[in-house]
Design brief:
Blueprint: E1 14-17, E2 24-28, E3 31-34, H1 36-43, H2 47-56, H3 58-84, H4 93-108, E4 113-125, E5 129-139, E6 142-150, H5 161-178, E7 184-190, E8 196-202, H6 203-224, H7 233-240, H8 246-254, E9 260-261
Parallel strand pairs: 6-7
Antiparallel strand pairs: 1-2, 2-3, 4-5, 5-6, 7-8, 8-9
Helix pairs in contact: 1-6, 2-3, 3-4, 5-6, 6-7
Length: 267
């Protein structure tokens, strides 16, 4: 259990499925908005996924995807109950597979969390996008967005650019609506064989990924309006973000973000 602070009073909304496209949307504060994952999914390069499906076959690809999705859902439930100080028992095979993964994230990832402000928090940027993040908390004394991920195998940093954009979008929405100052995003990843990885983004890198997400949001909006030449809403916010100067870009190159990994557990 983690200490709960009521620093923020979160706005409630509803998760919807768009009947036309089958994609996830949110209805919140009289806005009907695309989810962050919908935006990223619609604008990502699908070449790798297509090649993987061609290699393993459509049926096997669907089986692997569905199993990983179910395991991830169970892992998230365990972590949510831990944070809130409640208990859950899942004796199904998938539940028993997910429990040690959640325990590894609790052991390795949540130790620096001093207090949390919200768990499974629905966030939105008015008129632009919405989504739900796993945890808003104080992590090593900094206001932080945390996202939990399960993975079939260890991640390389170049594979998780969408994770960085996702967590940066949540930070941007939280700051805008609640007047917070999110300093960092932390992505906590665990594999079924209990290999834990942690990826952090803060400072100039966090701002860089905010810019990157807004570009993907513009791509999404352009797709929705069939590439009509109109200024999309996120361009207005893009203009307000302080640009990254060449010297700052050079500093980023000198100080790359590297993942923090732990050895594979013997448990």
């Amino acid at each position: 259990m983690i200490k709960h602070s009521k620093r923020y009073t979160y706005i409630q909304g509803k998760q919807l499925t768009d009947p036309g496209s089958g994609t996830r949307m949110y209805e919140i504060s009289n806005y009907k908005l695309p989810s962050v994952t919908t935006v990223l999914g619609a604008t990502k390069n699908q070449d790798f996924i297509k090649k993987w499906k061609a290699k393993v076959g459509e049926v096997e690809a669907t089986r692997i995807k569905d199993h990983a999705s179910s395991r991830g859902t169970c892992m998230h439930k365990y972590l949510e109950h831990y944070v809130r100080g409640t208990n859950i028992i899942d004796l199904t095979p998938i539940g028993q597979e997910a429990r040690p993964m959640a325990d590894k994230i609790i052991e390795m990832g949540l130790a620096p969390v001093d207090e949390y402000y919200g768990s499974e928090v629905m966030l939105h940027y008015p008129g632009l996008y919405a989504g739900a993040t796993d945890l808003i908390c104080s992590h090593n004394g900094m206001e932080t967005v945390v996202d939990f991920k399960q993975s079939n195998r260890p991640k390389r940093e170049e594979w998780i650019e969408d994770y960085y954009m996702q967590i940066s979008a949540y930070a941007m929405a939280h700051d805008y609506v609640y007047g917070s100052h999110i300093k960092q995003g932390v992505i906590m990843v665990c594999t079924p064989d209990l290999y834990y990885q942690e990826f952090k983004v803060e400072g100039l890198q966090l701002r860089k990924w905010k810019h990157a997400f807004l570009k993907r949001l513009d791509m999404y909006n352009e797709l929705q309006v069939k590439k009509k030449k109109i200024k999309t809403p996120s361009e207005k916010y893009q203009d307000e973000l302080e640009p990254i100067t060449p010297s700052e870009q050079y500093q980023e190159e000198l100080e790359p973000i590297t993942p923090i990994t732990s050895p594979m557990s013997d448990e």
